[in-house]
From TrEMBL:
The protein, known as: Aspartate--tRNA(Asp/Asn) ligase
Organism: Candidatus Roizmanbacteria bacterium GW2011_GWA2_34_18
Enzyme class of the recorded protein, top EC level: ligase
Keyword Cytoplasm included in the entry's annotation: yes
Sequence similarity: Belongs to the class-II aminoacyl-tRNA synthetase family. Type 1 subfamily.
Reactions the enzyme catalyzes: tRNA(Asx) + L-aspartate + ATP = L-aspartyl-tRNA(Asx) + AMP + diphosphate
Complexes and interactors: Homodimer.
InterPro entries: Aa-tRNA-synt_II (IPR004364), aa-tRNA-synth_II (IPR006195), aa-tRNA-synth_II/BPL/LPL (IPR045864), Asp-tRNA-ligase_1 (IPR004524), Asp-tRNA-ligase_1_N (IPR047089), Asp/Asn-tRNA-synth_IIb (IPR002312), AspRS_core (IPR047090), GAD-like_sf (IPR004115)
Keywords, alphabetical: Aminoacyl-tRNA synthetase, ATP-binding, Cytoplasm, Ligase, Nucleotide-binding, Protein biosynthesis
NCBIfam families the UniProt entry points to: aspS_bact
Binding, ATP: 212-214, 353, 405-408
E.C. code: 6.1.1.23
Superkingdom field: Bacteria
Intracellular or extracellular location(s): Cytoplasm
Length: 454
């Protein structure tokens, strides 16, 4: 098993080490041949003989050699390992490579994205891509550490579920055991996490995979994305905002990512529209953008409802939200609907909405009133949301939560121009999977088994 990484060799001067990795480059000086050996931590110069002549870049090799200090004039200050080199004692070629279909020794921005995603497993060899994924791993780890410290439980929710009114199109999955019926992939774990609160969990979180059939953008991946999903009982709006803010301040400080303003400034929706012309805005100066400073802000006091093209009412964010307490009577009486403000709070960073949440309607009467304002009949309400209304009637505590987007936050931190640069295997802009050939045609017998005709 590999026990030593390239970056650790600087501490092994005078020792014989065993290294595994890829040939990053080769320099042939006739009797002496140099290669740069690369693993996920960096590259180191290997000094070899004529045996190295048969090597090609991206061959997978094992090297056993003596770590030696480089002469002063040959030190390369641009490399972590620039003060040393390895004098080869033994070499084994573990796998010869075919010519690569894409170069992996550039940052990749010069390569067509569709081609990069087709060969994503090669694209990930780029130091930039590895750095993004390693940073993502550390980012999520620090989030988990903080929430465990605060007494949260990490609990998974189902992937096969029921279609929900999240505002986007669902991905649906046919049921073989119940022909003609379909599951939906979750747009979010919204209902399940609220049901956890009814179940007495009190503090829940999950690094959740979510699925929405939305058109792709540079800041929104098609098909699937990852969010930090959390919910808490016995809280008010300010409690959830404070916990979320403290979480990100601690995580960003540990990662040495600068934040413009602490505590985060708070704008009402009306103030944001008046001052910025939108509820997503960038508070940074041009100089702060160059320094990659992260500018967070909260937006609160959103209208609960907005008009539909048909003249009815629909929710602006989430039908499960509660109105602000002073508007609860209007909700029950279905009066002044356009003036009702919700407990929704959105987290904005560098011009993007990076998270949103609310205090929930924790009584059956309150939730039912929302759906009645939206024009749903008693039968529709019971069919689609009867389980939630029933559950809230069994002693549901006041509760609220939030769901910051992991992918979008990482795009802001890394300064990448596309969210796909911080996801290991994202969909293409045309909605095809990386590497694999999905969506694809399904054989007739499989469709028949599912009771589907095309």
């Amino acid at each position: 098993m590999k026990t030593l990484y390239v970056e650790q060799t600087v501490d092994k001067i005078g020792e014989v080490v065993e290294l595994y990795g890829w040939v990053d480059s080769k320099r042939d000086h006739k009797k002496i041949v140099f290669i740069d050996l690369r693993d996920r931590t960096g590259t180191v110069q290997i000094v070899g003989d004529e045996r190295f002549k048969r090597l090609s870049t991206e061959d997978v090799v094992y090297i056993k050699g003596l770590v030696k200090k480089r002469p002063e004039k040959l030190i390369n200050p641009k490399l972590k390992t620039g003060t040393i080199e390895i004098e080869t004692k033994e070499i084994k070629v573990l796998n010869k490579t075919q010519p690569l279909p894409i170069p992996v020794n550039t940052d990749g921005h010069d390569v067509d994205e569709e081609v990069r995603l087709k060969y994503r497993y090669l694209d990930l060899r780029r130091p930039r891509m590895y750095k993004n994924l390693a940073f993502r791993s550390k980012f999520i780890d620090l989030i988990r550490q903080y929430l465990f410290k605060e007494g949260f439980l990490e609990i998974e929710t189902p992937i096969l579920s029921e279609t929900t009114p999240e505002g986007a199109r669902d991905f649906i999955v046919p049921s073989r055991l119940q022909p003609g019926k379909f599951y939906a992939l979750p747009q979010s774990p919204q209902q399940y996490k609220q049901l956890f609160m009814v179940g007495g969990i009190e503090k829940y979180f999950q690094i959740a995979r979510c699925f929405r059939d939305e058109d792709p953008r540079a800041d929104r991946a098609y098909g699937e994305f990852t969010q930090l999903d959390l919910e808490m009982s016995f809280v008010q709006r300010e409690d959830v905002m404070k916990l979320t803010e403290n979480l990100f301040i601690e995580v960003y400080e540990k990662l040495k990512v600068p934040i413009k303003q602490k505590p985060f400034p708070i704008f009402t929706y009306a103030e944001a529209i008046k001052k910025f012309g939108a509820d997503k805005f960038d508070l940074r100066t041009e100089e702060e953008k160059k320094k990659n400073i992260q500018a967070f802000a909260w937006v609160v006091d959103f209208p609960f409802f907005e008009k539909t093209p048909e003249g009815g009412w629909t929710f602006t964010h989430n039908p499960f939200s509660a109105p602000k307490p002073e508007f609860m009577e209007d909700l029950f009486n279905k009066k002044n609907v356009g003036s009702i403000l919700t407990t929704q709070y959105d987290l904005v960073c560098n011009g993007y909405e990076v998270g949103g949440g609310s205090i929930r309607n924790h009584t059956p009467e309150g939730l039912k009133a929302v759906f009645e304002i939206m024009g749903l009949s008693e039968e529709e309400i019971n069919l689609k949301f009867g389980h939630m209304i029933e559950a809230l009637g069994y002693g549901a505590p006041p509760h609220g939560g939030i769901a910051p987007g992991i992918d979008r936050l990482l795009t802001c931190i890394t300064g990448e121009t596309s969210i796909r640069e911080v996801i290991a295997y994202p969909m293409t802009s045309g909605g095809r999977t990386s590497v694999m050939k999905a969506p694809s045609v399904v054989k007739e017998e499989k469709l028949k088994e599912l009771g589907i005709k095309i």
